[in-house]
Amino acid sequence: MSWLYNSLNSSIGKKIIMAVTGVCLVLFLIIHLIGNLTLYGGFNAFNGYVRTLELVKPVIRVVEVVLGLIFIFHIFNGVRLWIENKNARPENYTVKGIRKNTTLFSRTMIQTGSIVFIFLVLHLSTFWVAFNFSGEPEHKPYQYYSIIMDWFKNPFYAGFYVIAVILLGFHLNHGFQSAFQTFGWNHKKYFPFIQKLGTVYALIMAIGFASIPIYFYFNGGN
Amino acid sequence: MSGNINVLLKIWHQKNANTKGGFVDYKVNVSPDSSFLEMLDEINNDLERKGEDPIVFESDCREGICGTCGLVINGEPHGPLRKIATCQLHMRNFKDGETIWVEPFRAKAFPVIKDLMVDRTALDKILQAGGYVSVNTGGVPDANAIPISKDLSSEAFDAAACIGCGACVASCKNASAMLFVSAKVSQLALLPQGHPERSKRVQAMVMVMDELGFGSCTNTYACEAECPKGISITNIARLNREFFNAKFKSSVLEY
Questions:
Q1: What is the ipTM of this complex?
Q2: Domains and CATH numbers, chain B
Q3: Cβ distance of A11 and B216 shorter than 8 Å
Q4: What contacts 24+ positions apart, CB below 8 Å, involve B247-251?
Q5: What are the pLDDT digits (tens) for A177-196?
Q6: Using the beta-carbon criterion (under 8 Å), do A88 and B107 form an inter-chain contact?
């Protein structure tokens, strides 16, 4: 299997790892957002969503492990690429023309990704840990909702949440079309559409996720 | 002279790859009809007259087809205009009183030889790994013996327009040579003559490219914007496809 190891460690192999893990995360975010939107339905709607997840708990646990591995591969590979690519130009240009020939989104993947990572750690330590390791099971649904409301009342948490998901949108705007290019699916007829679709997807994700803390910060969960 | 413009040139000087370089200022009064390289020639004439070392830069055909010239002007390989080589750039594209920064192509794989001249042997090494078709000696094959559609031959020709100047590497934030390699792989992969060796070709060329210290492509598309020949990034998508197909289908384990 050393051919597979070598292939995945080649420059194109690393692109493929980024793209495959990225696509998984793109799909995960869609499901995550749909779930989050039940918060707008109030306590009962969200409670129903939580109960549904509780029913398939073993499946959720497997998905969590797989997702964790995907995140680790995506992040490890991204940081590794960033370091290697920095080393490919030991002395940088004095005048940087990069603004004239690339998009802001494509050249800030490491920065937006890093902030999203910091957010992810905070997000898991506030919501995921609290949901999984606190309180009596029968009181949990109520707790979940109130834990979320409590955090969204905190202007720093809500503010950072909003900034992070907007930057996530930046990250996705490049990542979406970039994955298609990496898979070799760049066709003159369809690629312009894919690029637009990626922007629409990124906007929906950024606005969708950001709207929730904004709404509950100002409405206080009432 | 009337009609001339005054520009301040900040030109990179560097003795060799192992020494640190820096910018030297030159104030010049130049005709807007002069080409960028003619302006550098005039500066060099002055320097030689004074008994000083001329600025070292490369050029050959001076009509945009040989790929020898290549300067990074105000941060962009081959200057601010699209789809031209440095030799096709004229001073009319600059304003009177403008400051112009001139740097060499910068990449680990392109060490500086002197001043603005860099060693691009790395690109030749990639070609030697597989950027060719093997043809048995003998009589010249009949023209049109193998039918090829006009669309396909045009697409192959567009890829073959790559002059190997290295502007893609110079413009890429990762100093990746993917556009160059993709053009060279595509021009052969699109045509029947290139098919017998296509699997070996793509694997060998990517392997050598990685060994030579180029960075990895992250799809920023700066290369396409700066390429003097307008080589499309669809070639990079094709290179990726060629690479997966070769890796999955070929039974050769050496790559």
A1: 0.93
A2: 5-113 (3.10.20.30), 120-249 (1.10.1060.10)
A3: yes
A4: B247/A3, B247/A7, B247/B203, B249/B199, B250/B199, B250/B200, B250/B203
A5: 999 999 999 999 999 999 99
A6: yes
